[in-house]
Amino acid sequence: MSSQTLPSGTETRTNHSEETNGLEEDTRLRNDIRLLGRILGDTVRDQEGADVFDLVERIRQTSIRFHRDEDKEARRELELILDSMSISQTVRIVRAFSYFSHLANIAEDQNNIRQMRAASGADGASRASLMNQTLAHARAAGIGAADLRRFFETAQVSPVLTAHPTEVRRKSTMDREMEIAALLDRRERVRLAAEETAADDEQLRREVVTLWQTNLLRRTKLTVLDEVTNGLSFYDYTFLREVPRLHCALEDRLNEGDGAARGELASFLRMGSWIGGDRDGNPFVTAEVMRGTLKLQASRVLRFYLEELHVLGSELSMAAHLTDISKDLRALAENSPDKSPHRSGEPYRLAVSGIFARLTATARRLEVETRRAAVAQAAPYADAAEFKADLDILHRSLVSNNAGVIARGRLRFLRRAVDCFGFHLACLDIRQNSAVHERTVAELIDAAMPGMSYMALNEEARVALLAKELSNARPLTSAFVKYSEETAGELAVFHAAAEAHSLYGTAAIPQCIISMCKGVSDMLEVALLLKEASLIHPSGRSAINIVPLFETIEDLQASSSIMDRMLSLHDYRKLVDSRGALQEVMLGYSDSNKDGGFVTSGWELYKAEIGLVQVFERHHVRLRLFHGRGGSVGRGGGPSYDAIIAQPGGAVNGQIRITEQGEIISSKYSNAEVGRNNLEILAAATLEASLLQPKQSAPRAEYLKAMDELSDLAFKAYRGLVYETEGFADYFWASTVINEIATLNIGSRPASRKKTREIEDLRAIPWVFSWAQCRLMLPGWYGFASAVEAWIAKHPDRGMAFLQELYREWPFFRMLLSNMDMVLAKSSIAIASRYAELVPDEALREKIFGRIKGEWHNCIDLLLKIMGQDRLLQGNPLLERSVRHRFPYLDPLNHVQVELLREHRAQNPDEQVLRGIQITINGISAGLRNTG
């Protein structure tokens, strides 16, 4: 099971009774895995022959022996089997093991759903969800419903979907997998007759055979709009219905109890997206693509509203002579263009028909095709608020005339959906690298001011010039100047953003993010470009948030001083005040990890947050942190609940945005029930961290000092290996699938920033993804053991006991180690040794792999001592069983991948070799789940 679907490792610690329940659940999970495995086995035998099926079983059994004992005889036997296979046989074997990984994921997801349901009482009472627990904690702390409503009025929790290329599955295979999941779910929930069971069994086999005969791999490269369409699927699966339901359920909880002051809960959960707006390193995201993205988003949400209105009209059949209606509802009905005599005495239907006609006209204005015609022409809505106001008239009329129970049905969820999604569906961020902004502004200024060389100015001179231009009503651009393609493209994007504001509302594009932000001028340059598009007014009003993204270790260390200076600038502070005195800051987990290693990245992020909290408090500006987390621990991944709770005091404060990337999106949100649970986790953790955690931003001084020392030591060890060891880049490129990953059609963005083999120029995603494929997971743990050993040697008086205290008492340190625990459990030094053999330089191989192997063993030993465990994942039995279930089917994929890599690099011309490698990448990624 994906760890992302669980609140935290600590929450899954079990007592004896829970362990017994876990074993029962484990049995049911094994039964599901065996069922799907048996059907897949039958499919392989029927489709490919008994010889292929027998070969799969031999490889699986031998692989188990090798993994369990690092058995040299099993290794030789495995190599003999693999060497004896033809390329055609190898590809079929790879497909079998890859599909098993996918089917095992389905079984585990269903087991997760089963456990969530088991928490519900047999009488249908509300399950003891994380949110319910958090509300109980709040009540115990003396925080009442009214206080909580006030909290949510200014709160924002925003999962932001990105198209970062770590989802290797095609939508076609995902659709088949969802059908299989639905069939398993039906078997679980419905008592079937014998005939129905037989029909279900046949349908399950039909779906598996269809899956087997469906391409695992994309044959063509995805376009940006393909990525947008794929991302929008999750609104159909989960968000459009579950976001409103979560709000309504929470609202009901706050309104519970006799004498409780009742009221509507403010909408605080806002979906965000980078897909179609993230231009950093992706030349295919243009102004036209951004327009297409916004149109696709509007199409999805408007069609949803129209469909809901159509059904609502059939439901609200109340007759005027049988119930009273409000004056406003009567006016709405009388103004309806629907003149059908069949509905003349049905005021609610007339009103809904009129609303439908106006929304259809709105869709036409936004160039959205609709599936069903309105009864007549009508005026379009000016904005979503006007649409919501008409729905509110229906609501108030029902409530005031003793039909509140009807108002709480479809109408309630539709009203909430409009409040959450508007006409834009998701808030699209626009993002670009600071270097591109710099070049664009330089070209504009140099053209507008003959003799000026912006690039030659130092930072202070740039800041002075930019601040002056910011309040200047004169535009910098001219219709008589021909700008470079890059500059023209950047200006077009900002003008398209202004156009989007007028079409869909300001919430359509609320943020402009600056990647690799390194100074004050980087932020002022963006402000100047926004002014050119009239998104910022010279008087100091801004229609958009300017968001710096601090990514490297050096930039994280400078973030507090940069923001202190920004908030001290009069012209910039006016912009912040015009946005409600709220400033968002984004922190990058991926590049900081690649730059300084897992320990140092985590620590510098934590320290940056402490510094930012203090700076913002001093300036009386509200801070909203945006966490750029990936799926893997090496890119900031891990359980969301733990990550939010581990933030320093004051870092959440009711406001948080978090990226949801690649394969994590599908693991969290392709199933509505699991998706709702994950959204609830984000909301509950935000509430807990904001109201129920200690307010001080920093823990005890001795904890900070120890962590500073550990971080410095881990940084030295990590940099010493990755950046200072001669030949390391050669080792990396030879011992991983980095070259072959680039051949997968899993995203529209290039893998490297520049065409070099330098680690510095490689993007963080393929860096982490490659280490996951060879089962080392190096970015998620390397340097920790060296740091701990050196620290204990330096502090023998405190030693291990002090580190154990850190683990017990400090959520940040506990989260750091829990994530390493998960990563190391999925790693395999035995399998990694086979990838090391791909390095042709024997001396280089021995030197580097020897260091990695030693650090890996030491890391596990020290981690277990600090955590007080006998084995990895001892404190998370659910995940431990999940990992154990997968190894027999995951490990063979690695062994075959190594052999195929040998063939590919020996220039084997058979195109099936590369195809086989690509399928192994797909299967291993599915087996590990959070790989990028």
State the gist of this model.
This protein has 932 residues and is mainly alpha-helical. Helix content is 63%, strand content 5%.
Walk me through the topology.
Layout (H helix, E strand, L loop, with lengths): L15 H33 L1 H20 L2 H13 L2 H32 L11 H11 L4 H9 L2 E7 L8 H19 L4 H19 L11 H31 L17 E2 L13 H29 L11 H8 L12 H19 L18 H17 L3 H4 L2 H12 L5 E2 L1 E4 H15 L10 H12 L14 H20 L6 E5 L4 H13 L12 E6 L2 H16 L1 H9 L3 E7 L1 H7 L1 H22 L2 E7 L11 H6 L9 E7 L1 H7 L2 H21 L8 H22 L5 H8 L2 H4 L22 H10 L10 H11 L4 H11 L1 H16 L2 H8 L5 H26 L9 H29 L5 H18 L4
Parallel strand pairs: 1-2, 1-9, 2-3, 4-5, 5-6, 6-7, 7-8, 8-9
Helix pairs in contact: 1-2, 1-4, 1-8, 1-36, 2-3, 2-4, 2-36, 4-7, 4-36, 4-37, 5-26, 7-8, 9-10, 9-15, 9-26, 10-12, 10-15, 10-18, 11-12, 11-13, 12-13, 13-15, 16-18, 16-19, 17-19, 20-23, 22-23, 22-30, 23-27, 27-31, 31-35, 32-33, 33-35, 36-37
Describe the structure.
This protein is mainly α. Helices cover 63% and strands 5% of the residues. A nine-stranded parallel β-sheet has the order 3-2-1-9-8-7-6-5-4. Strand 5, helix 19 and strand 6 (545-550) form a beta-alpha-beta unit. Helix 9 packs across helix 26 (672-692). The protein is globular.
